[in-house]
Each structure stands twice: as structure tokens, then as C-alpha cells.
Amino acid sequence: MSTMGNSTNIFWQESPIGKLERQKLLNQKGCVVWITGLSGSGKSTLACSLSRELYTRGNLSYILDGDNLRHGLNKDLGFKADDRTENIRRVGEVAKLFADAGLICIASLISPYRKDRDACRAMLPDANFIEVFMNMPLELCEARDSKGLYKLARAGKIKGFTGIDDPYEPPLNCEIEIQQKDGDCPTPGAMAGEVVSYLEEKGYLRDH
């Protein structure tokens, strides 16, 4: 019996089928691919391309998209610092469950604060947290502005917008860094290929 947060007198219920059995069934190893970066840096593009590439290879993945989750799980949260922290904590807990289920969970969120991303990494006891940093310059992201958010932020109509009037803290020791090469952005396929190569090298795409 234990107490967790505001929950008291609770018990952990073990399942007769564990992570190893689920991974064997799927012939892959569960992990979290956490894609972080500024708005417009290409996070969702990479997430979708990666998911498609894994699907064609016979690997099961699931995307946790930051905006999509704010339509449901996190719709009660805003964008103040405390809300951002709680947003990332919830996504981290869900991502942990997907990884435990044996899936390759692709989390795509700005997740601007280093301590919040590190807290999610710490949730995975076997260190199956792969941080992918979309290291694109602010000027490029703002020029893309596919959602029109930078324009609104510059006009003062959005407060606390990451990269404009709220900080983005880049990873210090990410597993993968995606950036421009000779001034050109890598294609979605090339970005996905880089992540797939890492997953393959580390043995996540098979269960042996």
C-alpha cells in the first residue's frame, strides 16, 4: 500500500503479461522518441514521416502530438510555466505507458524547459528515452509560420510564446540533433531515416 500525490491507500496491480512478452509479440522494443524544438522547426513533419517509415518496416508506433493532446487530455491547461510543466508531465506519463506496451512512442512537443524533458527521461527506468532536437534557427521557423502564431506573437496578441517572449532551453545531451546542412533543411525522409538508423543500431526495431 502506498500514497502517491493526493492518492492514498493505493496498490500497484501487477499484470500476468509484462513488457518483455509484449515486445516479443510485436518483435520490437518499446521506447519513447521525444521530438523537441521551436514551433515551425519540423517536429510534426518528422513525427509523421517517422511513423510512416516505421509502419512500412512493420514496426508499430504511435504519435503523441502536443496540439492534439490539448484537444482532450490537456484541454484544461494553458501556457503559463506551471501549466506547461504539467502538460509535459502528463505526456511523459502517457508516453511511458506506450513504451511499456511495447510501442515506439513518438512524442512531438515544443517542450521548452529542460527540467521538464529531463523529468520525462527519468520516468523510464531502462533509459529508453531518445531525445531528438530539431535545431532550426528562429528566423527559419518564423519565416515558415504555417500556423500564423509568430505573427500574432510579434503583434502582442499571444503572450508567453516560445522563442519570442518565453525561452526555449535546448537539450544539452540529446541522442539525435537535426539541423540544416549548408543552409538547406533535410527532407522529411532524410530526417526519418536518421532516427530509424539510430533505432535500428540500438536494437529497438527487433526483439532479439
Structure explained in plain terms:
By secondary structure, the chain is of the alpha/beta class. It has a single domain (19-202), classed as Rossmann fold, CATH 3.40.50. Helix content is 39%, strand content 17%. It contains eight helices and seven strands. The chain has helices at 19-26, 43-56, 66-69, 81-100, 114-122, 138-144, 149-154, 188-201, and strands spanning 2-4, 7-10, 31-37, 61-65, 104-108, 129-135, 176-179. The strands form two sheets. It has a five-stranded parallel beta sheet. It has a two-stranded antiparallel sheet with strand order 1-2. A hairpin with a 2-residue loop joins strand 1 (2-4) and strand 2 (7-10). The N and C termini lie far apart (36 Å). The model has no long low-confidence stretch (mean pLDDT 92). One of its GO terms (biological process) is hydrogen sulfide biosynthetic process. It catalyses: adenosine 5'-phosphosulfate + ATP = 3'-phosphoadenylyl sulfate + ADP + H(+). One of its GO terms (molecular function) is adenylylsulfate kinase activity.
